What we know:
The chain has 3 helices and 8 strands. By secondary structure, the chain is α+β, with helices and mostly antiparallel strands.
Amino acid sequence: MIKLNGAAQREFQFASDVNTVMQYFGGLSRMVHYLPHIELLEEYSPTEVRVQYTSLELGAYAINIITDLECLVDADNLTIILRPLKGKAPVKGEAKLNSTIGYGYFTSAAYLENSGSGTLIDFRLKMAANLPRPRGLRMMPGRVVNRIASSISQGRVNEIIDGFMADAIDSFPAWLAEQETVG
Length: 183
């Protein structure tokens, strides 16, 4: 098995009031598109989805992690939580020569706070999975593979959180304009 773990936390300023920010970030299927390496596979409901993390590592190994998520928006406490969705069948792990797929876990939390010029967001993201080892890596000792995998997965989590913040900020003006023409 390959053990993947990563966690990251960032704070960023969002140039809008907290209620608008809650509405924007509470759109789960829209937010998934702002996460690098993450693809929406199925939308069960507006607050429940199945997603896939995909990356090519070391130029040769395809890593695929499937997970089911639910989004909880708590307007009273100004939080948006993504957590594993219960009741869905996990994907069976499978390894081939240069690829692996399995079920994993993603969680995120966004804590919002009114700020003088908008909303301060404390965003946290975690990823974990135990995947079957691709056959091409079976000759390497497990601890070496896991050390490499841990370093790579931490780097990918940093890419995901940084890319998410940038894409969400860049896409906000168009979303806001669309809301104003609808409303």
